[in-house]
Amino acid sequence: MNRKYRGLSIIYYMWIVLFIIVPIGLLFYQSFFDIYGNFTFDNYISYFASGNYIKMTLNSFLTAFFITITTLLLSYPFAYFLTNSKNKEFLLLLVTLPTWINLLLKAYAFIGLMSKNGPISEIFGMASTGLLFTNPAFVLVASYVELPFMILPIFRSLDSIPNEYMIASEDLGASKWQTFRKVVLPLSMDGVIAGSQAVFIPSLSLFLITRIIGGNKIITLGTAVEEHYLVTQNWGMGATIGLVLIVLMFVVMSLLNLRKDNK
Fold first, then answer.
1. How far is residue 54 from each of residues 19, 46, 60, 61, 107, measured CA to CA in Å?
2. Is 13 a residue whose pLDDT tops 90?
């Protein structure tokens, strides 16, 4: 049986090599060439010496942070309600249903909702200017897109908590708030950390929603990579920014996993 599984694992390792290691290696190789194909270190020097790129990096982190916090604030109460619902399977289907729809279609649907005459702009009292092409609009749409990836891990972690823990807590005289704060919340932190990883990391490199909903007013590292590859044709600089994004993602994952291990 061990030999059998060892043989099957070759497919897994081939997948990692072909679709993870090789693309990263190509990015690393391309990052050492300028727009004319000459070998250079100028791409890295330009990135770390440029105030614009540093500001763009901080803006990407800040935007991803706001998206993660917004998604978490919406997801945790819903996941908590979901665990106590009699129709868990049906509600879970409704949660995952938006992921079946193309991202581009969802983004364009929000253009109509957030335009000057759209219902969301009227609700927020922005009918004269519209909510479109603003930071709140971008965070709202990105949070909507990422919502299922935060709800599902939190729900799984909440649903796995034995009901006997809550009963024992109440028998010992704890209030519902104390039970939630001392029992439910700590035991669900694995789901919160997993959901935060699933939302924060992709949010660092968003560019499609940034262009459609944010217009040219929101510039992140993701839009910078798109700009260098599709507009300026400076693939070396685009590869450099892409590598910086990958490193930042690994750093975030390591910090969150460290928090989980020290829990």
1. 29, 10, 10, 11, 28
2. no
Distance CA 230, CA 226 (A): 6
CA distances from 68 to 107, 146, 149, 182, 213 (A): 18, 9, 11, 24, 18
Q: Angle at which helices 42-49 and 235-261 pack, to 10 degrees?
A: 60
Q: Which two tokens stand for residue 115?
A: 């335009």
What residue ranges do the domains of the chain occupy? 51-261
Burial 36-67 (b: 16+ CB within 10 A, else e): eeeebebbbebbeeeeebeebbeebbebbebb
Domain 51-261 in CATH 1.10.3720.10: yes
Choose among 255, 227, 257: nearest CA to 242.
227
Question: What mean pLDDT value characterizes the chain?
Answer: 86
Beta bridge mates, 33: 39
Q: What is the dihedral of CA 29, 35, 38, 41, to 10 degrees?
A: -60
Closest to 219 (Cα-Cα) out of 50, 29, 20, 44: 50
Contact present, 241 and 47 (Cβ < 8 Å): yes
Query: pLDDT at residue 10 above 90?
Result: no
